[in-house]
Amino acid sequence: MYSVLLVDDEHWSLDGLRMLFDWKSMGFFVIDQITDASEAFDIIFNKKPDVVFTDIRMPEISGIELLNMSRQAGIDSEFVVISGYAEFKYAQEALRYGAFDYQLKPIDPNISMPLLKKLKVRLDQKEIERDVSIYKELTRGMLSPLDILKANHYEPTGEYWQVITLRGSESLNQDEQFSLMGNLHYYKLQLAKGNITFIVNGTSSLKSEVLEIMDKRAPGTGMNIGLSSVSDNGDDLISLIKEADMAVSNHFINGNSGITRFTSSRNTELESVVMKTEKLLMTKKYDEISTLIDSIPHIFESGDLGIYHVTFLWNQFAILISKRLDGESPMTKIDFFDHEEILNRFHNLHAMCIHLKGLLRNICNYSYNDEVKPNNINTNFIALLEYVTLNYDKELSLRELAEAHFLNTSYCSELFRKVTGYTFSDYVTKLRMELAAELIQSDQHTADTISRMSGYNDYYYFCKVFKKFHGLSPTKFKQKMIENNNQN
How far from 89 is each of 72, 95, 96, 103, 107, CA to CA, in Å? Predict the structure, then answer.
């Protein structure tokens, strides 16, 4: 609610002002009513009320002077100046110093409600502008998030942090927002109408407290609510804000409102879709590609995935498609997007999948040069490529494969680069390393067995290749997988 200070040297005028307006119903409350202008300035300076109603003629300090003193002190409270004199110069002077309105005594009861409505619109906009500025400062990362919050009069009471973002909260007044958040210690950022971010601080039980409160009070509100993970480091607020912003956008996936917790767990089904699509693109099998893309929404619903995974999926396809298009391609390149760009570009996940299918169809119909047109790719080479894709775990030699398929080895090597985007050896290594990662994630085989199943009889050489490809040794890869599973 917005705070109001009433200033007039006559008690009866103050009582009349207080009774004239229906403060509470419009989201205002009167913090004090003062007859002494000097005392009023002390309150304005220390408490910084949102609105000041002041008489223009008072002993020692006039309402205009009170307004001017406040502006010189850097205080931007909205002033409604009241006068018993219908003199234009008073109104002109008040407005020159930035008064919100000028009214004659006694204020007409018929304008009391319109005046409060205008004030509320102005204050709501100021709050949004101020909060957006704080939000940008927090997410820019130039200053410590804790320093920014403390500079805006928020003192943490615990070591743990979480961010909650609400969308569709237009119908909630400030009392209802307060009720929704219960006894949580929070800092509110009103970023737009219906768009609120709460930075919450507490003890080690913060995660369970937030979930309990949201589960009890949020259902039935029709809002989208995004919950970040919890951190014991205030410097993580930048990433926590982003997590909550991603989680609150989960309606993009299924159109449903409700509470969504941020998750960034790895999903092998999505990775498999991308890998299978890449292999099918090499032989231009669009119908099978289309079926794969159509399976994506189901994977998201059954796997409890979020916007993080949508962004991951889009950018994996961006890498795949960019790899397939050479520099001379007349086709539209696919851009890398963050989650905000995806939300702005597509209405929902289904629309994004339709767009991806269109791009992939074009690639299947487009050829880089006459040598690799869909209808002109050497059928023997296609057979060779399919053999490699099915038998990469075996000992393979391009020279022997080329001879077996009646192809020139040099021509075959060049065609391999153009069709797959990889050299023969790099392509085989890629397939083997992808299989090795899948086998480790299945947690059903020993490391030595995985090495042999991936096509390597020398376990130590396998480890060396695995680390070069994945950036981690097989053992650390498995440890990281277990840690990710425990976190989610």
Answer: 21, 10, 10, 13, 19
pLDDT tens, residue by residue, 383-392: 888 889 888 8
User: For residue range 413-427, what is the model confidence (pLDDT) as tens digits?
Assistant: 888 888 888 899 999
- pLDDT confidence of residue 125: 92
Residues in Cβ contact with 374 at an 8 Å cutoff, skipping those fewer than 6 apart? 284, 364, 365, 367
**pLDDT, greater one: 283 or 147:** 147
Contact 335, 301 (CB under 8 A): no
Cα–Cα dist 150/320, whole Å: 46
Residue 86: the pLDDT is 64
Is pLDDT above 70 for 371?
Answer: no
Q: How many CB atoms lie within 10 A of CB 364?
A: 19
Its sign, for the CA torsion 309, 312, 318, 319, is: negative
Structure tokens at 283: 């032989």
User: What CA–CA distances, in Å, run from 76 to 1, 50, 83, 102?
Assistant: 17, 8, 21, 17
The predicted model gives 223-247 an average pLDDT of 94
Is residue 383 exposed (0-12), middle (13-18) or buried (19+ Cβ within 10 Å)? middle
Per residue in 441-464, pLDDT (tens digit) is 888 888 889 999 999 999 999 999
Q: In what order do the strands lie in the sheet with 28-34?
A: 28-34, 2-7, 51-55, 78-83, 101-104
- pLDDT for 377 beyond 70: no
Alpha carbon distance 378, 387 (integer Å): 14
- Which residue's structure tokens are 């590609």? 289
Q: Tokens representing 46?
A: 């220390």
Q: CA-CA distance, 393 to 454, in Å (whole number)?
A: 5
Report the predicted TM-score, pTM, of the whole model to 2 decimal places.
0.69
Identify whether the C-beta of residue 224 lies closer than 8 Å to the C-beta of residue 247: no
Residue 47 pLDDT > 90, yes or no? yes
Count of CA atoms in the C-beta half-sphere (13 A) of 263: 18
Q: Which tokens belong to 117?
A: 């409505």
